[in-house]
Amino acid sequence: MLSEIYQGVIPDETVKIFFIDNQNMSMDVYLTGGVILEVTKAVIKQGYLNIKPEGVRLNAYTGSEGNNGILGFDVNNRYIDCFDTGSWAVKL
To answer: In terms of Cα–Cα distance, which of 52, 66, 50 is closest to 15?
Structure first.
């Protein structure tokens, strides 16, 4: 449900969204697979896109540098790509 809300805000359908639960009432949001528009990055930096469950702290938004997944070791799925295809993860 939460990823559907975020997908409604980000118009690019190639952007894939996933969340990490840090097990301490905080979470991280990752956006991979597509280009995040500069206006969307500005909205995130201003704190207007802090969509989260009540009582949960949102630590950071992280995206990939390119139009592909975040670089991962021994992992290749729809969010994370391996060597030669993955991009560095950068804070938005």
So the answer is: 66
pTM over 0.90: no
Which residues form the domain of 64? 2-91
What is the CA angle 40-26-65, rounded to 5? 35
> In whole angstroms, what is the distance from residue 64 CA to residue 20 CA?
15
- Tell me how many domains the chain contains: 1
Q: What is the pLDDT along the chain (92 residues), one digit of tens a residue?
A: 788 888 888 877 888 888 999 999 999 998 888 778 888 888 888 888 888 888 999 998 888 877 788 888 877 888 887 777 777 777 87
Residue 3: what are its φ and ψ, rounded to 5°? -65, -30
Contact 32, 63 (CB under 8 A): yes
